[in-house]
Design goal:
The complex is a heterodimer of chains A (232) and B (231). With 232 residues, chain A is an all-alpha fold. Chain A is 78% helix and 0% strand. Chain A contains 10 helices and no strands. The longest helix of chain A has 40 residues. Chain B is mostly helical and 231 residues long. Chain B is built from 8 helices and no strands. In chain B, helix 1 crosses helix 4. The chains are: A mainly alpha (232), B mainly alpha (231). Chains A and B meet through helix 2, helix 3, helix 8, helix 9 and helix 10 of A and helix 2, helix 3, helix 6, helix 7 and helix 8 of B.
Chain lengths: 232, 231
Amino acid sequence: MGFDVELAWRLLPSLMRGAGVTLAVLLPCLVAGMLLAVPVAVWRLSPNALVGSLAWCFSMFFRGVPALILLYMIYNGLATVGIIRHTVLWNVFFDPYYCAVIGFTLNHAGFLVEVVKGAIQAVPPGLTDAARSLGLSRRKTFFLMTLPMAARYGLSAYMNEVILFAKGTAALGAITVMDLLAVANAAVSTSYDPMTPLIMAGAIYWCIVQVIQKGFARLENHLNRYLDPTPN
Amino acid sequence: MELLSFDDTGYGDEMLAGAFITVQLAVFSFLLSLVLGLALGFIARSRNRLLFRAWRFYASLFMGVPSILVVFFLYYNVPVLIRALSGARMDFSPLAAGIVALGIVYAAYVGEVIRGAILNIPSGQVDAARAIGLRTLPMWWLVLIPQAWRIALPGIVNIWMVLLKETALVSMVGLTDLVRVADVAAAVTKQPFMFYLAAGFGYIIFSSATMVAARRLERWAYRGQLPVKAQ
């Protein structure tokens, strides 16, 4: 009972490897999730009812279903589908790591769609009119004005989502990926110490969250540097 | 479809029992987080430096680690702790570990929302309540809480939605909730999509149902304010 410093030191390398696995899932999902969420958010705002409701279904489903169920569905479920099992696709879905990246990307994108949509809607319509009347095409207006402005409006909601998502990756162990929590749990059963490995893992998760928060604070300062000339 | 039937051959009754466990876990941990979070929200606005620091520590700790890690921690450590303190051997069920852990974690979020709501009430309201001669308790009960509650409601509904989906993770410590039952049924029947989708839609239906209830609650909280526009 109690925190065992010597054990903590001995576990540190394997826990860091676990943290590496957590980050190796987290980072590609952040990129892929954003690439997926921006077009879906634009479709969500489309005047076309069919496109709009398809995008709504996408975000409703992937937000509403717990990430753990998505992971099970992809890892355990797709293995039973003949088309996947007997083609080159099996090389992807055989590996729990790729299944995790795909499942978490969809889950993360479901939440991001709402964040991006809210951010785009927060851009004052007058700015769009102004950009259009300057002769910018619709495409240029979107990429040069709307998206950069929306990034500023949506930043804090995005940060909250990234932090929730980073902590949500702790479900990885359920599909046999040896992430930070799974390594700590394995250490609990081999060392018979129920406390030290989990405290160490918690500390590492906490540090990851702090880095995300500090990073976003700096990014926000950088993006809004034109607003307030006084350095803070 | 007969795989979902309610007799011995189908998994319908097991799924329903699992869903009931999930609902219990979600409701009780949410209630616990509300009670703890309310206390935290009031501590957070205290001028006592030590209390404020303690609140910052609590919030930073539980917002910074995954809730499932806290579930595992309590599940492993509480029985050890009880034995060390009282000598009694006591089992700590996965359900109890889940309720307590999620309650503690989400209390940090509830506390943040409550604090924000209280800070958002214009200070003139306190002056006005004092000016018409209200004592502290009636002032809170009649003037401040009805307004703070209105501001806090959307945030609290959000926390509920996140918490509901987070309960799925507690199946990782062996709770036979909706996810675990669906997983077992999927493995036995070799029909994974049917059961995972059924479980997934269970969560969607449950959160949609509470969304409707939340709308009602919101309308009630805003009674006497400007008329709510029909959407």
